[in-house]
Every structure is written in C-alpha cells, then in structure tokens.
Write a structure and sequence with these properties.
The structure holds 2 protein chains of 2 kinds.
Chain A lengths: L1 H5 L10 E8 L9 E8 L4 E5 L6 H8 L7 E6 L2 E2 L5 H6 L1 E5 L10 H11 L4 H14 L4 H4 L9 H13 L5 E5 L7 H18 L2 E6 L2 H7 L2 E6 L3 E6 L1 H6 L4 H7 L3 H6 L14 E3 L4 H10 L4 E5 L5 E6 L2 H4 L9 E2 L3 E3 L4 H10 L4 E5 L5 E6 H46 L1
Parallel strand pairs in A: 3-8, 3-9, 6-7, 7-8, 11-12, 15-16
Antiparallel strand pairs in A: 1-2, 1-4, 4-5, 9-10, 12-13, 13-14, 16-17
Helix pairs in contact in A: 4-5, 4-7, 5-7
Chain B lengths: L2 H41 L3 H16 L2 H12 L3 H25 L3 H9 L4 H31 L12 H9 L6 H30 L7
Helix pairs in contact in B: 1-2, 1-4, 1-6, 1-8, 2-4, 3-4, 4-6, 5-6, 6-8, 7-8
Classes of the chains: A alpha/beta, B mainly alpha.
Chain lengths: ~425, ~220
C-alpha cells in the first residue's frame, strides 16, 4: 500500500469523501434502510451525522468503509472510486473508532495501537516510535500505559487508546461511530475537547455519528441532521442549523434553547472586551479613593500583586471597612479566559452581582471585562448574521432540490426531448 | 506381599506402563485438539453445522469404550492403532463443543472492529477470535484429558499400552495374592497421572492466556 507509506512524514491530511446515491436495502424489507444519500464531505472537515435511533446514520457511516456493503450508489474517497476495491485494503486507509469495546482485550495498549501499522508492513522501529507518539498525542503517558491491558484502563482512557489505534497508520479519513457514547458526561466533555485539539493539529476528514445534538454542535464543522432512512433533513454549519432549522423535524431535534446553544459556538475573543478602571493592592489608599470618585462607575476592580482580579470595590466599601483593603469589597467569584465560550461568560455574568465578568490572560492576569450589555449586543449581531447566512444556504439548497426534482420528473423522456 | 513391597518390586514395569499411558493420552489429545479446533472453526458460524458437530461427537461418546475398541479391532488390528483411534474420537466432544461455544461467544463488536481496521478473515480468526476463545477451548482440552486418562485403561483389552494392563491382569487373576495390588497400582497410577496432567494445564493456561483476558 504505497499510497499510505509516502504521506506519513508530516501526517496525511484529510481527503474528500463523496457519497453518490448511496442506498442500502435489506432483503425482505421493502423500504431501504438508507435511501439515496448524496453528500460531499470536504477534505479536513469534521462532519457529524446526527439523528434519532434507527435513522440509518450508523449504517451510512459503515458503508463508507464498507463494513456494510451498499446495495446501490458510489463512494469516492479523494476522487478514487472505492465502491468495488478490496474492502480490506480500503479499511486500512480509513481509521475507524467505535464505542469502548473497540479495543482487543487480549492485547496490550501498545499492541492494539500497533495493529494497523503492522498490517501495512511498517518496519518495527518505526512502529515502536509511532506507538509512543500516538500515546503522547492522545494525552497518555507512554511509559505508564504502554504495557497495560484495556481492562486496566478507565472508560475515558480506553476511548483515547481507541482513537490512537484508529489514527496510528495516519489515515486521511477517520470514521467515528458514537465513540463517546459509553463514558460519563464529564469524561465525554474532556474527550470532545481533546478531539477538537487533535483535529486542529491533524486536519483529518472526520465523519462522526452521534445521537447527541449538543455533541454534534460542539464537534462538527458541518452537521447532517438525518431523519428515517438517512434522508438528509439539513446539512449545514451548526450556527445555521441552530438559527435557522430547515423544518419542524430539525427544530424538534435541535430542541429548546437554540439561542443558548448558539452561545457555545462563540468565544469571548469574538466579542468586544472593554477596559475597566482598576487599582492594585499596592496602590496607596488615596489613589484608590481618587480613582473611585473619578471613575464614573459604581465600582472598580482591585487587582492583586500579580495583576489578577481580586475584589470589586464599591463606593463606600472602604469607608465601611475603615480603610482596610483586606476587609473591603466583595471577592471576584469567577473569571473567564478569551477561549471561554460565551455561554460560560454569560453564566459568570449572571452569578457575579456586578453584572460583568473579568477576562483574564494565560497566567490569570487581568485583560478587560465583558458586561451584560456587550454580551447581549454581540449575541444579537451573531444571531442576525447566522440568520442571513442560513437563508442564503436554504435558498441554494432549495434551488438544488428543485433542479433534482425537475430532473426526476422529466426522467429519461426529458433527455429524449433535449 | 504388602502394597508397598509390590510397588518396590515392580516399579520398573509400573513406570514403563505409566510412561506409555501418559504418552498415549498426550498424543491422542494433540490429535483430538487439532481435529476438534478445526471442526469448531469450520462449523461455528452456521447454527446447524455447529449443532451437527456437537451432536456427532457426543454420539461417539455414547458408544461404550469396550465396544468401540472391539469394533475397531477387526478393522485395524490389535495394539496401538485401535487405541489411538478410539481415544482420539472420544476426546473430540469437549474440544469441539467448547471451541464452538468459545468462538460464538466472541463479542461481535470486536469482530466488527477487527474488520473495521482492515483485518482479513484469516487474520481475524488467528489474531482475534481464536485467542479470545482460547480459555474455553483449553478448558475443553482439560476435561477431555481427564476423560481419556480413564478410558485409556480399556486399551489393554486390545493389547494396547498403559496402566490398564495392570488392572486387567489383576482382574484376570482375582483371588491370587497380588491381584488386589495390581488393580490398586493401576488405578492409583492413573489418578496420579491425571493430577499431574491437570497441574500441567494450569501452567499452560498461565503461559498461553494473555493477562488481559485471564479470569
């Protein structure tokens, strides 16, 4: 398999995946399990298939590496038609990660990860280095985990090894079938963050199946909401689906609180961070008094010696505390970083009784504040922009659909006329 | 003559018999294992084939051993051949049944995962299914060995090797002063051999079952 051999130096980037009229029929059932799915997945993109149980999302995924043989249609990876090639060869080029049980219990972590590289004939030394590299990549200490067996790992660790196994031979495409379905919510959250980080480094083409819409929003560059028989109800960016669901089915699936979920998709860095009057604990009391009086705001932010937000000081606080900084004011209960989601920021603003939250840099130092008003304005702007974008996409989709319906209705007769 | 004196007198003969018995059982077990695992691998995927294999091998076991050897003598003659054939046939059932149960018991998602990462079907069998089914197969082999150890005594009937000769000699000369000693020596010898084999299987289990799936 020379194709995979050559591209592994700097890591194989993603490949495009095209599904053309992909169909799966099971004998004895008049309705196809997957009906005529056509979609194009761009190189390096993360696409999430989301839909209710039994909608055929998993079947569609398994047709990409032909664990389930399609009854009709074509699959093209990186332009190459793989519908009829040897499935064993195809699967070695396509990473596959499934729910926790994907690891082989009789092999050590290292043996599990080495499986695919071994199958495609990497030399021993390279495999050994690769195993260490992969363990590092998924955040497990190679020295500690190398020789362990899967049952000696927690669910989250098993899942990490599963991802390492799928990525070991550096496939351009990674298929993930509800990989985080069996772990607890906190671990799942961590694993999702890790996957996002990995994808930033690797730029694989990832197709991810889940029934959890929040997971889809978090991970997907684009989301395909599937209804029964894998019909695509909407295939768009998370923002567009949240702000402009195509129909009742999609909005039902998005569920309540779409605007709140939208907040998860933007970061504090995307909104305006304003400056705010500050003093430090080392400033003389007189300076602090003057600042308070001249600031025009109700309170000022007191920073500690390392310029980290410490307390909110109100006018009068100092009087009441008889000039003692140690006793005056209220402690800063929560801060956010620029990478925090707007949802986190909103949470912090709501819990902080000053109606604003301090934004901190990498070492916790003060960089500015975000207040309720800024947050509201930004969210409105975001939603409005999303809506316009989604309308445009919707329009395009309708045009495409109309063309298709037209072609279908005309059928072969139309061609004869032409 | 007390039992101990008997043992001291005849230890040469007894050790030879014991060695032959052990070697007989060991070799028959190797054959039964090889044939049994192959039968299991060939039949486990289909319901009826697997059931047929289990049924067939258990039918063999219902044939009384004396009758089986008796039936084989006209076909293959006296001595080693009828003994080996009979023992191998008897040893099949536990191996075949456990191989089928073990292979069918492999988690289907693991088989799917093996397929998904690009293992060919031969590789799947050798790297995933058989190693995971090995503990039950080994149990089958162990049960089989215990059984064969007892049945092998009958081999003496067809002038075969083993401790059965002691027992038969004793039974033939009941009433003589060494008769009881002979039967006892043969029987106890077989029990000791069976225990030794069992200990060996514990060791083999520790050496061949990966730590990841050891109970």
């Amino acid at each position: 398999m020379p194709e995979t051999e050559t591209e592994s130096g700097g890591g194989a980037h993603g490949a495009t995946i095209e599904l053309v009229n992909l169909t799966k029929r099971y004998p004895g059932n008049p309705n196809p399990a997957v009906d005529n799915v056509t979609m194009e997945i761009k190189a390096g993109e993360t696409v999430v298939f989301v839909g209710p149980s039994g909608c055929g999302k998993s079947t569609t995924l398994k047709m990409i590496n032909r664990l389930i043989e399609p009854s009709g249609g074509r699959i093209r990876i990186d332009g190459e038609d793989v519908t009829d090639i040897d499935p064993v060869k195809l699967r070695r080029k396509v990473g596959y990660a499934i729910q926790s049980s994907g690891l082989f219990p009789h092999m050590t972590v290292a043996q599990n990860i080495a499986l695919v590289p071994k199958m495609i004939g990497w030399p021993k030394g390279r495999i050994r280095d690769r195993v260490e590299e992969m363990l590092d990549l998924v955040g497990l200490d190679p020295g500690e985990f190398h020789g362990r067996y899967p049952r000696q790992l927690s669910g989250g660790q098993q899942q990490r090894v599963g991802v390492a196994q799928a990525l070991a031979a550096d496939p351009p495409v990674l298929l993930m079938d509800e990989p985080f379905g069996a772990v607890d919510p906190i671990t799942r959250d961590h694993l999702q963050d890790e996957l996002i980080r990995l994808q930033h480094e690797l730029h694989k083409t990832i197709v991810f199946v889940t029934h959890d819409f929040d997971e889809a929003i978090k991970l997907g560059d684009r989301i395909a909401v599937l209804r029964e028989r894998s019909h695509i109800a909407q295939f768009d960016t998370p923002e567009a689906i949240l702000t402009n669901p195509a129909d009742d089915f999609v909005s039902g699936f998005v569920g309540a609180g779409a605007a709140l979920k939208r907040l998860n998709l933007s970061r504090v860095r995307d909104v305006e961070i304003t400056d705010y009057p500050t003093v430090t604990v080392d400033d003389p009391l007189q300076t602090i008094f003057n600042k308070l009086r001249s600031s025009g705001t109700n309170e000022i932010l007191l920073l500690d010696q390392r310029r980290r937000p410490y307390k909110w000081l109100r006018r009068g606080d100092l009087m009441r505390a008889r000039g003692s900084l140690a006793r005056a004011g209220t402690l800063v209960s929560d801060t956010v970083t620029k990478d925090a989601t707007l949802r986190d920021a909103l949470e912090a603003v709501l819990t902080d009784n000053t109606g604003r939250v301090a934004v901190t840099g990498r070492r916790g130092e003060y960089t500015g504040v975000v207040d309720m008003e800024t947050l509201l304005n930004s969210v409105h702007e975001l939603l409005e922009a999303d809506r316009l974008e989604a309308l445009e996409a919707q329009h395009e989709l309708e045009e495409a659909r109309a063309a298709q319906t037209h072609a279908e209705q005309e059928g072969p007769g139309g061609e004869a006329k032409a | 003559m007390s039992f101990w004196e008997y043992l001291a007198n005849r230890h040469q003969q007894l050790l030879t018999d014991a060695y032959q018995q052990a070697s007989l059982v060991f070799q028959c077990m190797l054959m039964a294992t090889a044939i049994g695992v192959v039968i299991g691998v060939v039949t486990y995927r289909s319901g009826w084939a697997g059931n047929l294999a289990t049924l067939g091998t258990s039918a063999i076991l219902t044939v009384p051993s004396l009758a089986m050897i008796g039936l084989l003598i006209p076909l293959v003659g006296l001595g080693v051949p009828p003994t080996v054939i009979a023992l191998t046939l008897y040893g099949l059932l536990p191996v075949v049944r456990n191989a089928i149960v073990g292979l069918r018991g492999v988690d289907p998602t693991l088989v799917d995962a093996a397929k998904g990462i690009g293992m060919s079907s031969a590789m799947r069998l050798l790297r995933v299914e058989l190693p995971l089914a090995w503990p039950p197969i080994l149990t089958g082999i162990r049960v089989s060995t215990q059984m064969l150890m007892g049945i092998a005594a009958i081999a003496a009937y067809a002038s075969g090797p083993g401790l059965g000769n002691e027992i038969f000699r004793g039974i033939a000369s009941l009433g003589s002063k060494n008769a009881l000693n002979q039967v006892l020596a043969g029987t106890l010898g077989i029990i000791v051999l069976a225990l030794l084999f069992d200990a060996a299987y514990v060791l083999i289990g520790r050496l061949t079952i990966p730590r990841g799936i050891r109970a």
